Amino acid sequence: MRRVLVLRGGALGDFIVTLPALAALRQQAPTARIELAGNASAAALAFTRGLLDAVHSQHEARWAALYERAPLPADFATWLASFDVILNFWPDADAELANHFPLHPAQIFLNAPAHPTYAPAAAHYSAQLRALGILAPSVFYPLAERTAQTTTRRIAIHPGSGSPQKNWPLERWLELAAWLRSTHHAELLIITGEAESSATRLALAPLGTAAHQLPLETLIRELSSCRLFIGHDSGISHLAAACSVLSLLFFGPTDPIIWAPPAPHVHWLKSSSAVSSIPLASAQTAINSLLVAP
Q1: What are the contacts of 171-175 at 24+ separation with CB within 8 A?
Q2: Higher pLDDT, 1 or 229
Q3: SS3 call for 26
Q4: How much is the pLDDT for 150?
Q5: Domain assignment present for 166
Q6: pLDDT for 257-282, tens place per residue?
Q7: In sequence order, what are the residues at sequence separation of 6 or more whose Cβ sits closer than 8 angstroms to the Cβ of residue 149?
């Protein structure tokens, strides 16, 4: 393989669970040029660590041609034909994208399911490389090593996610934050992004240090200094886990067997109905157990 193009869309967490596959691809083909079209800000994490040679935004207009019946624009088709391997993780239920490939007899085109069909999610994406004779040695890729001592009082909380249905109620987060400060003397790092409302940020602001929409590399440095991370099924939770931070995650409608980061330092509480039914006491018990563990 000399040139490889990976098509992988989605948000931050979707990209992070693809990292083990990219790492295996790079290990197998260290001199190949590997490019990716997808979430450009998330994919920069792999670019700066040498797993990718170029990143293209999934929002560029040219990609729309892949879902049209008309022939691809000549320049675009020529560029795509320059890749020996194209691995597609973009949704393609009607095979509209697949109908354009391969662009020449020597090109290998792999059209894989966009959503995981078994657990954990990272294993699903890595398994698609078997067609290339590549076996991924791991389903977890660390982005950073934890820098904090176990005695640090810094705890990160992320009260949001990409879906309100995944979120613990704000009132419970406020109670938990106050309890962490009073019982564990925690110095809270409150992580928020564009999905969190200004009302949420204002309510939590008096309880800790705000970390709002930080660049990902900055957030990695902040997370790496924390003793514990508490969050939901979200991209930030995957990022915290990839920073080797001890984590407690709250799950409701999604399956943690599939979507929880597959690492021994990641723990979770799962509700059989809605995430809102996870009691504060259950979270407190789990946190006490994690913070006193050797």
Answers
A1: 172/276, 172/280, 172/283, 173/204, 174/203, 174/204, 174/207, 175/280
A2: 229
A3: helix
A4: 60
A5: yes
A6: 999 999 999 999 998 889 999 999 99
A7: none
Q: How far apart are CA 2 and CA 114, in angstroms?
A: 25
In a domain, 141, yes or no: no
Cis amide bond preceding 102, omega within 30: yes
Tell which wins on pLDDT, 145 or 174: 174
The yes-or-no verdict on residue 294 having pLDDT over 60 is no
| Segment 162-214, tens digit of pLDDT | 888 999 999 999 999 999 999 999 999 999 998 888 999 999 999 999 999 99
**With the CA atoms of 269, 13, 90 and 23 taken in that order, what torsion angle do they form, in degrees rounded to the nearest 10?**
-110
Range of the domain at 222: 154-292
- For residue 137, being part of any structural domain is answered with no
List C-alpha distances in Å: 152 to 18, 181, 188, 241, 250: 31, 13, 11, 17, 23
**Predicted structure pTM score:** 0.94
Tell the residue number behind the tokens 């085109």, with chain if given: 109
Which of 101, 132, 163 lies at the terminal end of a domain, its last residue? Answer: 132
CATH number at residue 15: 3.40.50.2000
Could you check whether the bond before residue 91 is cis, i.e. omega within 30 degrees of 0?
Answer: no
The number of folded domains in the chain is 2
Q: Where are the beta strands (DSSP E) in the chain?
A: 3-8, 33-38, 54-57, 85-88, 108-111, 154-157, 187-192, 209-212, 228-232, 247-251, 266-270
| Residue closest to 51 by CA, chosen among 43, 61, 40 | 43
Write down the pLDDT at residue 134: 95
DSSP string, 110-138: EE--SS-SSSSHHHHHHHGGGGGT---S-
Residues 158, 272, single domain; the answer is yes
